[in-house]
Structure formats: structure tokens, C-alpha cells
Amino acid sequence: MWCFKPERIYPEAAFHLPYNWGKMATSLTRTFGSLRIVARRGLKNAELALNIQHPGPLFLPVRTKKRHFIPPAVGMKGKKEENPEAKARAAGIVFRQQYLERPINIACSAGVFDPYIPPEGDARLSTLSKEGLRQRTEQIRQSAASQLAIRKVKEYDSQFSTKTFAEQAQEIFIEAHNALTQFNKEKLHSLVTERCYPEMTRGNRYKTIRWRFVESLEPPRVVHARCPDMVTKGNLYGQVTVRMHSKQTLAIYDRFGRLMLGSEEQPKDVLEYLVIERHLVNPYSRWRLHGKIVPSWAPPKDPVIKVTVYFGPLIIFLFRLLDG
Amino acid sequence: MFLSAVLGPLATLNPNKLQVLGGASQQLSCLHTSISLDDKHWEKNNRKVYPPQLPEEPRRPAEVYHSRRQIKYSKDKMWYLAKMIKGMSIDEAIAQLEFNDKKGAKVMREVLLEAQEMAVKNHNVEYKSNLYVAESFSGKGQYLKRIRYHGRGMFGIMDKVYCHYFVKLVEGVPPKPEERTGFDQAKEYVQGLKNRTIIHSL
């Protein structure tokens, strides 16, 4: 099994200084003949007479015994490790302090507070019928808490108005999804909160997404607003819910370019309730997409293009159907 | 260091690619950029993303790369098993390894099962049995060295062997190896003889 010749163990021999410089000539000839320095011998008597002793060459190549590789594990038998930590510190290796903490993100809140409960049958009824009219009249003017929240938001942001905000929200939504298709991380972070980002991007790293906003069927409307405060009393976050009814196309391709979900040509009507959030106390904060509200009466989603369904990390965030 | 000295401020060095601005590209395209020892190249193949296919194109089969490093087994002994399962469908390969007596068979079976699960979960493979082993091979791992004592003060250096095992699973039916009979081979030989000609002849 061990096919090379075993070698004898010898102590290491190194170069050494000639210990007797007076007998330099003889020692030199004895160790190697080729490096005889003739001139030296001639000068030798004169040097001795004048008490000058020139030091010889510092390193004389002496024929050594062949050194063999001894693996470092030789002396390891039965040795208890004294203190690897002390050794490392002595060697100068500095370990960074380990922080056993969980980072908290304060730029966004953890969820949707007091979520908006969309009325049953929203956008299924035409606005001309009695039911539809009743729904229409249930606007945000009814909800006092929303009014209060909007007033609080207007304290911090004087240019806030529900009419313009809805358009702004739609723009944010479209830009965020375009950034998602290109997977532009920085832009996506500026348009979407930290809580929403993993929801949007989980499992998508090696997938290609093609999304297109075709048109908006109804103008977007602000339906709900809340201003929760986190941790301390004054730390306000504004969460506004916007209702959007639009046409979109979505196609998701997996790692190999095969279609997984949706289709690129067929647009679908989508009714969505987006939650847009802003950290009001921070003057540099922006309105960002925080999440979506999925009503319980939502129609089922399109099936995945697969016979067997595995409940893995597919994107479920984007695609919502209405009326098929 | 050497490269930056040679190329000067024109080159930007990426870990694996060398981008050179300016006209020096022809001379330097033949430079060898070495891969660092820590990179696990086989697993990086799993990160390759293909562009979406057009509807006319044939469906691209899914490929899953998996490996296990530093298995306490000899690479030469592992090779026999790897050669055995090459080209088999995954169910067949798992079954064969289950009833094989070698130590490496157990490890290999675990690797295959892991790869199958990964394929279904992460790589959008629809049927877990619809996979076959396209590539499977073993490689040398990092050995530990120990002393083996002989008589008369002699010693030998003993290697504690480790190996890596790599496998690539592809979706689909395993390709049938073409069977060449002796007659076919003889026919080809005769055809080769017939094709001989003298060039630049009259």
C-alpha cells in the first residue's frame, strides 16, 4: 500500500560556522575540495603575524542528510489542547465581536395595522345598480378613523391630497414592478419597504419575470388610511390603502427559460388593494409600497403550468385575478 | 498583482473575467486567469439562468448539479460506483446503490436523493422520476497525512484519503447508448478503406 521506500529518520543538519578558524585550510579541504581558496593560504602567515583574523565565509555548504517530510500530526498523540484561544490571541489574530442580536428595521413597520376589509363583491357590481351606488357612497368620508389619519398625515406632509395620492400610488406600483422585472435592487428598495421586499423577491433570483401594465380600468382611489405609531408615541407611520382595478400581463419563466406561470399575450383584469407606507417623522422618507390586502372572497388564481403542484417558493404576490 | 502591472490602469480585474479596455484585448485574451481554491465551481452551475424560450423552441430539459465534498473514501473506489450509475435513470441508480455493499454507495445514494429533492423544489422539475444521471464522477479531496511506522526506525507517510463526488441530473428519459454490432464496425472499416484516395493525382 505504501509504495515508496521508507527513509531513515535523522536529525536535521544545517549549515554551521566553522568553529576553528585557525585551522581553516585543513577544514576547508576536508569538507569540499572544489572551493579551495588558494589566495587565502598564501596570506595566512602574514595575517597571523599581524594578528588579523579575517572571518571566514559565514555559510559553508556542508553536505547534509536528506530531510524528510514529517507530517505535523506526529507529535499529536495524547496531547490535550492547552488553549487554542490563547494561542490565537498570542499570534495576533483578532476575532470580531459576535453580536447575538437580531437587526430591527425602523424605516418601515412590521405589518399592516387595522387592515382594510374590502366590501364583498367589490367591482363585481356595476355602479348604476342600487348595490353599486351604496358601495360608492361608502367612501372614506364615512370612516372617521381614516379621516383622522389623513389629517395627521397632512400635518407632516402639507402637499398630501387623496386625489393626487392615488395616481402617485399607481405610479409607484408600476415602477416597483418594472424594477422587479429588471431586478434592480437599489431602485426596488427605494420604491418598496423592507417588509414587502422579501415577499416580492423570494425565490425569484433565478427566474425571469415579464410583467406589463396594460391599462387602468378604473381610476385608483384611496379607500383607507391609518397612522399607527411604533415603540414610542410620536413615531408615526402613515399607511394608506389604495384600490386599483387594472389590466396586467404576467409571465414567469424558470431558470431554463420555460414558462411557469401566466402568459405574455393574455392580459388579466386585476383588482388590488395596495398599502403604501411612509415613515412620517423622517423628513427624507418616501411613500413606498408596503403590502397588498387579499380579500377572502378573491377568486382563485390561475394554475401553475405543471401537473403536480409543489407548494414551494413561487411568486404569489403579483398575480390576482378577477373575472378571469 | 502581475496582471495589473502588465496591463496598467486599463484593466479592471474581476474574479473570473478579465475585462480590458483598449486595444490590448487581442494579446491578452489568451491569458490564463486561475480559479481560486475556495470556489466550488460545480455548485455554481446551478446559478446559470437561461433567457426565456420562444414558444417554437423545443422545451429545454432542466439540469441540476450537486456534489458532496470530503467523503471519507478513496476516489478510485468511488469511481467504480460513479461509472456504474452513469447514464441510468435516477430510480434505477438509487435502487442499485441501495443494495450495493460498498461504503461509498450509501453516501452516493444520499447525494442522489438530495439532488432529486433540490430539482423538484428549486429547479422546477415536474416529475421526480423523470430524471437521469447525465454525469457522475469522483475527484480527489484534501488528504490528511499521518506517519506509518515501519521496522528499524523507518517510516512512511500515510495519506488519509478523502474524495468529492459530483453528479448532474438532467430531466427526461435516459438516452439509449447506440449499439454497434460487429457487422456495423466491419462495415465502417471497409468504408474507411474505400474512402482512401490519392490527393493531387492526375
UniProtKB/TrEMBL annotation, chain A:
InterPro entries: mtLSU_mL45 (IPR051975), NTF2-like_dom_sf (IPR032710), Tim44-like_dom (IPR007379). Signal peptide: none annotated. Belongs to the mitochondrion-specific ribosomal protein mL45 family. Keywords: Mitochondrion, Ribonucleoprotein, Ribosomal protein, Transit peptide. Residues 146-294 form the Tim44-like domain. It is found in: Mitochondrion. It comes from Xiphophorus maculatus (Southern platyfish). This is Large ribosomal subunit protein mL45. SMART domains: Tim44 (SM00978). It comes from the Eukaryota. GO terms for cellular component: mitochondrion; ribonucleoprotein complex; ribosome. It holds the Pfam family Tim44. Component of the mitochondrial large ribosomal subunit (mt-LSU). Within the mitochondrial ribosomes, required to direct the nascent polypeptide toward the tunnel exit and position the exit at a distance from the membrane surface. SUPFAM superfamilies: NTF2-like.
From TrEMBL, chain B:
Its main location: mitochondrion. Keywords: Mitochondrion, Ribonucleoprotein, Ribosomal protein, Transit peptide. It holds the Pfam family Ribosomal_L22. CDD domains: Ribosomal_L22. It comes from Xiphophorus maculatus. It is found in: Mitochondrion. One of its GO terms (molecular function) is structural constituent of ribosome. The keyword Signal does not apply. One of its GO terms (cellular component) is mitochondrial large ribosomal subunit. Belongs to the universal ribosomal protein uL22 family. The keyword Ribonucleoprotein applies. This is Large ribosomal subunit protein uL22m. One of its GO terms (biological process) is translation. It comes from the Eukaryota.
